[in-house]
What does this fold into?
Amino acid sequence: AFQYGGPHLCVDGKFATADGKAHFKTVALPDTTRKEGEFELSTRRGKQFNSIVYAEVDPLNNAPRDAVLMNGEDAGKLHLKQGDQVELVSGCGRMACRVYVAPMAPGNLQVH
It folds into this structure.
């Protein structure tokens, strides 16, 4: 998700324009093309805005606290299985975690 215009839009019911009204225009979106071996990562689940995992096991999906939830097809392509140790690396840093294959709909590939 991207928000253009700063962290707070329409403060006090007024926009930062000469007439105080909203003005809409199109903007160029960032390039979301991923290279081989790069993945899209989400830092929240569902309607969750802050972490709720305070125990060693997540009460919503039974994943361990240090889990990275992965699509079964992505895990399979990388020959990863449930519980494998991995390190996520980005321009912002590194995170050591364990693979947790996300539950999938019936008929989809699963890694065991």
About this structure: The first strand starts at residue 67 and ends at 70. Confidence is low (pLDDT under 50) at residues 105-112.
